[in-house]
Structures are given as C-alpha cells and as structure tokens.
C-alpha cells in the first residue's frame, strides 16, 4: 500500500511518525473515514466539514486546504487502485518536543496521515440481508463525543464485549437512553416513524445520519429526533444503524430479543437502497 504522511506518498513500511507525537502519547487527534465506491468518494464534503469542526473544537490548526485534502484522497485511491473501500484520514497535534500536558507552541505542524483499505463488494455486504445482533452496554466514554477523536479505547472494549457475547456490535446506554453504536448512529422504526437520538455533545454527528435523514424526509417518511431506551428498541418494528462504512445496516436483535419479526425490515432496506443510490450519484 502507498500511504500519505505529511505531504509524502510512501510505501506503508517506510511511513513513520515521532514517538512524541501527541496522537500517540495522548490520543490528541481527530480522524475521518470516507467510503469509496466505484473509485469515487462518498459524502466527501460532509466529512471534510466535520473534520474542520473537530479541529476547531480542539484548537488544532487545519493543515491542508479543502482542495489539497481532496487531491490527496484521490491520489491514494488512484495509487492503490481502490474500487471499493475506505480512505482513513487522521490529524494529530504533532509535537516536535518532549511529553507535556500543555499543547506545543502555536504554529507547530500537525501530523497528517492517510491510508486506504480495499474492501471489494463493500456495498453488497451479506449482513445487510440478515442484519446485525447488538448488545447494550453502559456508555463510559468522555462527554465530547461530538468531536471525532482517535480516543477509541472504550468503543473497542464495547466491540470486544459484543464479540464475546456472539453479537455484531454494542449500543451504548447513558441515563437509561441509547446514545449510539460503537462506531455508528442508532435508530428504531415504530409505526412507520424513524426515531433517532437528537444531535448534542452526547453523540457523533454522523455524516451518514445527516444524509439518511434528508433522504427519509424527501421520501415523505416521518422522522422523530429523540432518545429511546433499549426496551423501546426491543419493542420496535425495526432497528438499524448508519455509518460511512456500513451505510444503513439493519439490526434484528438487541440483547437476545428479536426486533419486530427478527428479520430485516422494509424501512431499513429502502433507506439503504436510497442512500447507496443517491450517494453514488453525488460521489466525487
Ligand atoms: N458514531 C460514532 C461513535 C462513530 O464512530 C461513527 C463512525 N465514525 C458514527 C457515529 C457514524 O458517523 P458517520 O456516518 O459519519 O460515519
């Protein structure tokens, strides 16, 4: 693989970053994941807007112009001959000096890393036909989940707990209400109405979420942005998640209880089709 580090395109085994980089020492960094279908980037603009917001919230310099980000993404897709897959982008605060809690001096160059992951057939994941099984777990992450930081240990622990219990993912719960999945936004469908938690600092503002809610409204589907419990989700007609890499993925079981019929439902199926069709059309 050819990867990107601070302006250079290098073979992955020659790409290096300082051990003093604050991304490594303190998880002081942010990231984005953009899907590639047919060699084109999905929702690129939305991901770039969110990246810039994450950087701003952490008072980190924006290292590249929008044009340079797009050019680098395209170059990596090209150099690695990616038809279907992902581009991962990470910006950390860098650090030329020693370990210190205080940020380095203004003007310190952030570290920018990008790489691709080839995923042939990404849009035809067999799981979309059978659905995911999820477990619930207490949400023990920090309180700024709206910032897409590389501080992913708790979601990793939750994913491992899900795997240990034979499930595909975990839905995190805070004060009795579902926040989101380990790396996706959570939804239920009841009586034709799509319900998903409202945006706040409690969840990541999913780019796929924004697109799916827009498409749902355009298709005259009812949407309600409010919190829900695991019990309500278990009693719903359907459940699903959204993310840049899973698109719209049905959820058919929560903590061992079937959701609705226990089969993939029509609303999730339709939203997945619309999302894939519309975002392919708008891909760059
Ligand atoms: N929530 C969390 C915690 C995530 O990590 C992700 C994926 N990055 C999402 C939601 C979905 O966001 P997006 O649709 O932008 O991929």
TrEMBL record:
Entries under Gene3D superfamilies matching the protein: 3.30.470.10, D-amino Acid Aminotransferase, subunit A, domain 2
Superkingdom as given in the UniProt entry: Bacteria
Gene Ontology MF annotations: D-alanine-2-oxoglutarate aminotransferase activity
Necessary cofactors: pyridoxal 5'-phosphate
Pfam families recorded: Aminotran_4
Swiss-Prot/TrEMBL catalytic activity: L-valine + 2-oxoglutarate = 3-methyl-2-oxobutanoate + L-glutamate; L-leucine + 2-oxoglutarate = 4-methyl-2-oxopentanoate + L-glutamate; L-isoleucine + 2-oxoglutarate = (S)-3-methyl-2-oxopentanoate + L-glutamate
EC number(s) reported in the record: 2.6.1.42
Top class in the EC scheme: transferase
Pathway: Amino-acid biosynthesis; L-valine biosynthesis; L-valine from pyruvate: step 4/4; Amino-acid biosynthesis; L-leucine biosynthesis; L-leucine from 3-methyl-2-oxobutanoate: step 4/4; Amino-acid biosynthesis; L-isoleucine biosynthesis; L-isoleucine from 2-oxobutanoate: step 4/4
InterPro entries assigned to the protein according to its UniProt record, in alphabetical order: Aminotrans_IV (IPR001544), Aminotrans_IV_CS (IPR018300), Aminotransferase-like (IPR036038), BCAT-like_C (IPR043132), BCAT-like_N (IPR043131), Class-IV_PLP-Dep_Aminotrnsfr (IPR050571)
PANTHER family, per database record: AMINO-ACID AMINOTRANSFERASE (PTHR42743), AMINODEOXYCHORISMATE LYASE (PTHR42743:SF11)
Protein name (database record): Probable branched-chain-amino-acid aminotransferase
Native source species: Paracoccus angustae
